[in-house]
Each structure stands twice: as C-alpha cells, then as structure tokens.
C-alpha cells in the first residue's frame, strides 16, 4: 500500500508549475473520436491515471492513442467499435463522455452505466435528454445505456435543468455533426467548456457562445484531427495557492490563469491572503492570521466544488467561524470525518459545514475519500502537529501529477512511500515493523 507522509511545520516557498487541466483534457480526448480523417495532437497533457483510463476506453473503440512527453496523438480514422464495457467505465465517470461523439459519428453507442461515486449519485439524465431531443433513441438495461439514431442527429433547442458540465460537453460533441443548428441553453460556463469548444472549432466545427449560458452549434458533415493545447489546471493551481496560504508561505503558481480563478481569489483575499498577478502566474503570500469566510459552491463563475475541501483545510486555520455550503454535489463532505481525526472542529448541518477555527490540527492516519479530499488532507498535514499519513492514493493520482514531489520542492517535509505490510501473525507483529520503501509515483 502506498501512503503520503507529511510532517507539519514548514512554510512553502518558491515556484510550482501547473499541469494541463484534467477536466479539460478528458473531454478533449473524447472529442478526438469525432475526427474521421487526420490525427489530433494534444499538448500539455498531464500524466494522470484518468488520462490513461480514457485512452483505455478509446482502445475498446478502436481509436489509437500515443502518449509522448506531455502530448498525445489520437487517431480515430479506423472503423469504430461502439461499446465501452463496465471495466472501462467504472474507474472514471468521465468515460461516459464518449457517448456523444460516437452517437454523432456512427449513430450508435452502448456504454456501461457509470454507477455511484464517493461524492454523490451523479445521474446522467441531462446528457440523455439532450441526445433524445436530437432524435436518438435511448434505452437502459443490463447495466448499459444504449443510444442510436437512424442517419444523422438533428439540431434542436435544448434547455438544461442544471448547468451540468458533463451534459454540456457530451451534447455539444453530439451536436457538432448534427444536421442543422442546435441551441443549448442554461449550459455550464466553465473554462473547460471553452477549451473543448476551441478544440472542436479547430477540428472544423462551428460552435459559438462557449463560456456563456447559451451555446449555438451549426452542424457540419465531417471533422478532421487538429492540434490543440489544453488549458492550465485551475484546481491544481488553486490547491497550491491554498498550500501557500495555509503555511504562511510565498509561492509563485506558474501558469495559473487569474480569469479562471476569480471566485477562489476573491475568497482567499477576503481571508487576508495576498495574491499578486505576475507575468507568468499568481504569487500567493499567506498572512500571519487568516480571517473566516462563508462560501457556497456553485457552477462557474461561482465557487468551484472541486476546491471545497481544500478551502475547508484553510478555514480550519482561520480565526473564527466559517460556513461552507455545498450545493453542487449531494454528498461531498466525506473528508469532514477525516479532518475530525486530525482534531478539526467541523459540524455538518444538512448541506452546510460549520468550521470553527483555528483548530490545532494533529497528525493522524487518514484516508483520501476522493481526489480533492486527498489533496486537502495533505494540505492540513502541512500545518498539523507531527506526522499525517494519507492512504487511498489512487484517488489523488486521478487528479494530481507528482503532488508530494511538487510540495517537497517547495520546502514541505513530505514523501510518498510504499508500505509493505509484512505482518502476518501476532508473533510476527511483535518483532516485525511494516517496511517502508520510498518510491516514485506510478504515473510519473
Ligand atoms: C471530469 C470533469 O469535468 N469533472 C467535473 C465535472 O463533473 P460532472 O460533469 O460529472 O459534473 P456535473 O456538472 O454534470 O454535475 C453537477 C451536478 O449536476 C448533477 N447532474 C449532472 C448531470 C445530469 O445529467 N444530471 C444531474 O443531476 C450531478 O449529480 C451533480 O449534482 O463538473 C463537476 C462540477 O463542477 C466537477 O466537480 C468535476 O470535477
Ligand atoms: C470530482 C472530480 O472529478 P470527476 O468528475 O472526474 O470525478 C474532481 O476533479 O474533483
């Protein structure tokens, strides 16, 4: 079993470069399926387990991918398969994003139902509503969702009940090859949507309005592979910004785009954190004392749910009471129990978490309940007394490249180790200690 072990007490100093965004690269790789001719080359691709997972899904669909040095070549010119089995979809819900492109290009797709996940039930009704509105017939059975259309999908007007990021992306990818014009309303406005639209347009699509509440797509007959650079990861950037703030450090987060981080910057400044825009990123300087704030997670440009647990770690260090309300996911407070193990003073009331600070955090054995929780527990460990050991790193590896190594380069006392649990009998337990072997992360 692997763990990250942190010893609290060091300030972060120096600079760190953010990777390409996980939540942008996954839909972009899925969109590559739409290219009937030519090869796509994507740049600034992060070495995350999720990227390998989506490439595995593409392999089932007979799409070739080749990862090389932060770039990836995607060739979708062979005859496509249209079925993605559960073993491909279970690791990552974003695998479902292949449905829109398949439906658009070959008129059929059968994808295993993604199933539940640590942060809530996460239905896909809005994706399906969009496909059906464009003329697809959707059936659900035996753990699969099957969608098919005779001929091409038809452009239409679609109003989403909620600005779902995944539904906006999936429907947008379906609509680019539809006959006629599709107008999507109440859509997600996240920077990752704009990144996807730019890639689709580079492939020959006609998408307008991405980044606003209404997207208008004129369907085209064919798309070709294109080159595209993935935007910087605003959540990884935000995580390091919190790292600087929580330790009272001074860190330049290279590649952080202030426009993408407005809600986080606003809240951190309210807390007394100094954030300076520099030519190549954002400099974050932690104050001696942090002020409490209230925040509510919302679709972009509201406060991102993917930064909720990191902000909770920070608010545990603020002097006074803060309230975080989670409105995007129904069950995204699993990390609270883990923070409590570290002596964090947090109460849950429905969708709100009430945080009393400053909590004198103590190192403890904790589990990453999801990928952001993993990062947040490590952040809390940076200021806790003694050693914090975080396990379930498979979640962390979905969203962070070399997280421990990057923190160590900023001066944190942190390392990733492999713990070989060799203890088999009680007798052995008295004589043998678990062996700790330092190792590089799996996806470096
Ligand atoms: C790979 C990726 O980009 N993941 C991000 C994406 O996830 P994802 O695309 O899954 O998130 P959505 O925006 O779709 O989900 C937001 C909310 O809408 C609900 N919903 C969604 C679709 C649907 O058909 N029906 C429905 O009810 C979900 O259950 C959830 O409560 O956006 C989330 C919200 O910013 C982020 O936390 C995730 O990191
Ligand atoms: C919830 C997240 O991702 P996913 O939608 O891939 O589970 C996340 O990135 O925090």
From TrEMBL:
GO MF terms held by the record: UDP-N-acetylglucosamine 1-carboxyvinyltransferase activity
Catalysed reactions listed for this entry: phosphoenolpyruvate + UDP-N-acetyl-alpha-D-glucosamine = UDP-N-acetyl-3-O-(1-carboxyvinyl)-alpha-D-glucosamine + phosphate
Compartment(s) where it occurs, according to its Swiss-Prot or TrEMBL record: Cytoplasm
Pathways involved: Cell wall biogenesis; peptidoglycan biosynthesis
GO biological process: cell division; cell wall organization; peptidoglycan biosynthetic process; regulation of cell shape; UDP-N-acetylgalactosamine biosynthetic process
2-(S-cysteinyl)pyruvic acid O-phosphothioketal PTM sites in chain numbering: 117
EC number: 2.5.1.7
Binding site for phosphoenolpyruvate: 22-23
GO cellular component, one term: cytoplasm
Main localization, broad class: cytoplasm
Transcription regulation found in the keyword field: no
Entry-linked InterPro entries: Enolpyruvate_Tfrase_dom, Enolpyruvate_Tfrase_sf, MurA_subfamily, RNA3'P_cycl/enolpyr_Trfase_a/b, UDP_GlcNAc_COvinyl_MurA
Catalytic residue positions: 117
Keywords from the UniProt entry: Cell cycle, Cell division, Cell shape, Cell wall biogenesis/degradation, Cytoplasm, Peptidoglycan synthesis, Pyruvate, Transferase
UniProt: UDP-N-acetyl-alpha-D-glucosamine binding residues: 93, 122-126, 306, 328
Transmembrane segments: none
Family the entry assigns: Belongs to the EPSP synthase family. MurA subfamily.
Chain's role: Cell wall formation. Adds enolpyruvyl to UDP-N-acetylglucosamine.
PANTHER family: UDP-N-ACETYLGLUCOSAMINE 1-CARBOXYVINYLTRANSFERASE
Name by which UniProt lists this protein: UDP-N-acetylglucosamine 1-carboxyvinyltransferase
């Amino acid at each position: 079993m692997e763990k990250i072990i942190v010893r609290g007490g060091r300030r972060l100093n120096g600079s760190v470069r953010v990777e390409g965004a996980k939540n942008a690269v996954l839909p972009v790789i899925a969109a590559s399926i739409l290219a009937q001719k030519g090869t796509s080359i994507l740049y600034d691709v992060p070495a995350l387990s999720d990227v390998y997972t989506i490439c595995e899904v593409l392999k089932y669909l007979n799409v070739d991918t080749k990862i090389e040095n932060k770039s990836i070549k995607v060739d979708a010119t062979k005859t496509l398969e249209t079925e993605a089995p559960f073993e491909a979809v279970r690791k990552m819900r974003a695998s479902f994003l292949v449905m829109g492109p398949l439906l658009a290009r070959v008129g059929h797709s059968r994808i295993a139902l993604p199933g539940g996940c640590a942060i809530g039930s996460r239905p896909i009704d809005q994706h399906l509503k969009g496909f059906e509105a464009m003329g697809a017939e959707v059936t659900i059975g035996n753990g699969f969702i099957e969608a098919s259309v005779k001929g091409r999908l038809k452009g239409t007007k679609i109003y989403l009940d909620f600005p779902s990021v995944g539904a906006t992306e999936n429907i947008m990818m379906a609509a680019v090859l539809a006959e006629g014009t599709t107008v999507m309303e109440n859509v997600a406005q996240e920077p990752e949507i704009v990144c996807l639209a730019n890639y689709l347009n580079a492939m020959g699509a006609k998408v307008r309005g991405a980044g606003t509440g209404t997207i208008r797509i004129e369907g085209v007959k064919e798309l070709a592979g294109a080159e595209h650079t993935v935007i910087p990861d605003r959540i990884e950037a935000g995580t390091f910004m919190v790292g600087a703030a929580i330790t009272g450090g001074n860190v330049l987060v290279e590649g952080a785009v202030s426009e993408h981080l407005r809600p986080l910057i606003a809240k951190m400044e309210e807390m007394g954190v100094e954030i300076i825009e520099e030519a190549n990123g954002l400099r974050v300087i932690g104050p001696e004392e942090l002020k409490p704030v209230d925040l509510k997670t919302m679709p972009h440009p509201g406060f991102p749910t993917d930064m909720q647990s990191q902000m909770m770690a920070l608010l545990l260090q603020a002097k006074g009471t803060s309230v975080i309300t989670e409105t995007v996911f129904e069950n995204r407070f699993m990390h609270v129990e883990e923070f409590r193990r570290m002596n964090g003073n947090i109460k849950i009331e429905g969708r709100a978490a009430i945080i009393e600070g400053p909590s004198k955090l103590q190192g403890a054995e904790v589990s990453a309940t999801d990928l952001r929780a993993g990062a947040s527990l490590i952040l809390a460990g940076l200021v806790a007394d003694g050693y914090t050991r975080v396990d379930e790193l498979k979640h962390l590896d979905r969203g962070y490249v070399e997280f421990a190594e990057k923190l160590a380069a900023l001066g944190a006392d942190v390392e990733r180790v492999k713990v070989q649990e060799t203890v088999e009998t009680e007798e052995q337990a008295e004589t043998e200690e678990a062996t700790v072997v330092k190792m590089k992360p799996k996806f470096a």
